[in-house]
């Protein structure tokens, strides 16, 4: 390595080069994501149906599938400037250690206290809640990254924040809870006795370690039962992908600045927020017939919605209180094993990502967590960043692609999303370091059983 | 706030603007820091005396008080590029919330997995050890930041790394230990039974929570007893301040780029590595008669070496196995209370910083940890970064300065060092959030007792 790299280790946009509008990929989709359906009537949800649960302006964003660019309010752009632009990093060290001719880049979203990309949508949702004059918001969190991000955004704007945290994460990550508390949030392990749906789930599954689906049910109920509160969600929804498009827009601007065209774009996929945001502007180019890219969604083998799920209408939560979304799903009553990538333990997948996958614009692969942690540990030593388990799914596949290039001699340009850091995931690393990590993959029978209970929609 | 800031929220140097040489402030000091003395003969330590303990090239750097600039080897500069340049952040949000006319900047060193500035010297020391053909290095760590940084550097270069971690930090921060393990280091709580000096300290102070001074003794002994090992230290030494000058050089380059002249420069002070590095180039200007700045060292009231210590020769460690350094000290057998700023729990202060303080080039203040955590929590909410307890000492005093400006109307430019993040300090935050944090300040009698045991040097 030397000083004469024409491309720096880290590409930072200038402040004035930061995106001033989010990109709404749905506007360029010929096959629009299917609408949310009312769980009772099975009719498309209207703004009036959604507004008791979500903030008004966010409902508009949720339903808008025609406007390609939506301005980012100045206040949100100012907040973004505290921790953005995030760097697009050229992984020179990783390339060298892997002895690959591939060029590897990663968009690193972990350099903020929430530890992930989640802050991009948290500040947007909190901003619109504040603008509407609300007192506070409720939400769920899996790995704790979304809850932390929302706590930070709410503290900044002076909003109350109530977080239902998936029980296995709550127990594995006491310090995540403490970060949220430091930011003034109220954190409850889910399922809990504080909601009707929580009590029901506990009665049916005593000793459950919880899931994102359960926690969503509880947070929705909590919002409905409090005056001046609305529910906010860190993934899955169209609005979240819209906000997260900042990741892809910055990535594309940074690549364009140096005339770099990626061959492969890789992101981890749980609910689809990071993946959807990262790939949006690139998929837009594909949809408009301007470019071709290979796009890979990486999901955990323990919760394989794209690779083993069914494309169907399903509830977004375990308690079946939410609208129905058409998505790749494992069934809303599927409870994944207590893997360490809490942020990927979701039974479904964003409707937008699902539609794009269904239409062949992206591939999907699933990987086992022990392989993921091998990649994470390797990456930490070589690139100096200890990655989140979720992000490490993308690292695993990016490394596999680069290793393949070593064998074929191809000089592919690989871009992947490094969504966050693993500083609050040390229990997982400890288990891996001690050789105690296992892989638990659902059997075909288990999946068939949970899929058999999908709601019937004509 | 608006888009028309002429100064961005974050000033990043371009890669080609990064310093290519470290700055050695001793070259510009008329009164040089007093030399290390041999603990037996009380004669100045020679290179030959030091080389059994330290790497050769580092010994040269330790003793060199005449060369103003020392080239940074290309390999170290390449490593720096993975996580540097670090941003100089304009604290627009903090200024607004404090309603101060002051302009506040902070140099943020926490955006790397070690969580602090320590990596700047860790990679340098590991590099020279590797170059010398050594097998490994031993060291101590307080808060765990230095140990983590050294583990990262050693993993990168393929060196063995043995860390003695101050027992109270080891217990408060199991996850720090796990990060070090992930990077392949061997971590032992100190005092331990693995060394003679450790066994002696345990016998004399059963149940002690340890200190940096104890851990140093053990690490030095461990290096001496293993073929192909040397001892490395994360603070106090001249060589460390030299490496850490990168902080100040980048800060000054970023300020110069926008024609900003600071009035006040503030840093926390434990052993002096961050403070010394941050202020070096500014002090250089003062020493050469080019500029004037007010410089403030902030130390914990529980371990107040500058404000309540004595300027005298003392051992660098508790076990009295190291050379004697002339410094502001509380006595090498002083064991500070188990405060949460583990990185500041050191009885002495870098000889260079001590000499500068003695000659009136800087001021010093001490602050109590409850006041520090008030500032830390406020800063986290406003600026979106959860700071390390150590760094928060500087935040406290920077905020106090800014609040004073609000009262006087002065538009001072305040620069402080934000050395790291508090992600592994959540036990401390929890105690603060629960209202259980206390301040334990040594009595005059306690200090007199430990100072009475200073070695007698003519």
Automatic annotation (TrEMBL), chains A, B:
GO function terms (MF aspect): L-serine hydro-lyase (adding indole, L-tryptophan-forming) activity; pyridoxal phosphate binding; tryptophan synthase activity
Domain Tryptophan synthase beta chain-like PALP: residue ranges: 83-420
Gene3D superfamilies listed in its UniProt record: 3.40.50.1100
GO cellular component, one term: cytoplasm
Origin: domain of life: Bacteria
Top-level EC class as recorded in UniProt: lyase
Keywords attached to this entry: Amino-acid biosynthesis, Aromatic amino acid biosynthesis, Lyase, Pyridoxal phosphate, Tryptophan biosynthesis
Matches recorded under InterPro entries: Trp_synth_b-like, Trp_synth_beta/beta-like, TrpB-like_PALP, TrpB-like_PALP_sf
Pathway(s) annotated for this protein in UniProt: Amino-acid biosynthesis; L-tryptophan biosynthesis; L-tryptophan from chorismate: step 5/5
Binding partners and assembly: Tetramer of two alpha and two beta chains.
Family indicated by similarity: Belongs to the TrpB family.
UniProt name for this protein: tryptophan synthase
Taxonomic lineage from the root: Bacteria, Bacillati, Bacillota, Clostridia, Eubacteriales
